[in-house]
Amino acid sequence: xxxxxxxxxxxxxxxxxxxxxxxxxxxxxxxxxxxxxxxxxxxxxxxxxxxxxxxxxxxxxxxxxxxxxxxxxxxxxxxxxxxxxxxxxxxxxxxxxxxxxxxxxxxxxxxxxxxxxxxxxxxxxxxxxxxxxxxxxxxxxxxxxxxxxxxxxxxxxxxxxxxxxxxxxxxxxxxxxxxxxxxxxxxxxxxxxxxxxxxxxxxxxxxxxxxxxxxxxxxxxxxxxxxxxxxxxxxxxxxxxxxxxxxxxxxxxxxxxxxxxxxxxxxxxxxxxxxxxxxxxxxxxxxxxxxxxxxxxxxxxxxxxxxxxxxxxxxxxxxxxxxxxxxxxxxxxxxxxxxxx
Length: 341
What we know:
By secondary structure, the protein is an alpha/beta fold. It is built from 12 helices and 18 strands. The chain has 2 domains: about 1-65 and about 145-190, FAD/NAD(P)-binding domain, CATH 3.50.50; about 200-335, no CATH class.
């Protein structure tokens, strides 16, 4: 039998996906192996360490886990603003002026990238064996927030193995590609998700998802099915905010107040965005991730709706204050005022 791609033979323990780990009794007094290196994996291993007989994280390569606070400031206050977005590659529709700004500000942006890297390493308490080889911003699509597992690891309440699981066999034996064998009563697979839309008719699915990736204009609207939309498929560092503005956009479309290009133009735009995401987020092949590009994505939607993208009076406030929901608290009133004109 094969579970999660792993061959199993006579294993008397239990194998579950991380989404099924909802009860501490599943791990109580058990020898637990967690496979993965993302946020879910580290959370599962940390939680298991409190109640299990042992907790071991097995991972192929580490990812960055960033502290919730950097020098006493909330992470999103520092990293999720218009200025910090500039440390990443240019957004797919960045104007000539914005690209020119990047060139002029290149030395300052280089210093900011280095500073972020140093601050994260110092404050996260990441063990040497779990430090990724790439800089913090290079693997943004796999980064997580929360460093609790590192603290537990330093206290000796959990163990790590940089390896892959070759097989699960025997009564309670886990075989690694290093040749090491570990005992386990429970294996938690925290190796990701496969996003599906199985609740839709098969013909409808094919119009929305082709060749393994979602084809949605603005990450919201299927060009050939304009009577339906998807909210939350622009996964970002501030998903509640980007989802809220997406809902406004979709609402305006359903009310017939949004001017949209024809389906062929939409597909051209979708393919352009797809090409960009493949370069910037190579590990997110499904194509619905925008990461730290919160401001640029919201600007697209606000422009479509005919709303003001600048939300602060001063240039410094506009670029350095965080992209929080209160910036957009008047969007409903602004939409209503536009509709009355």
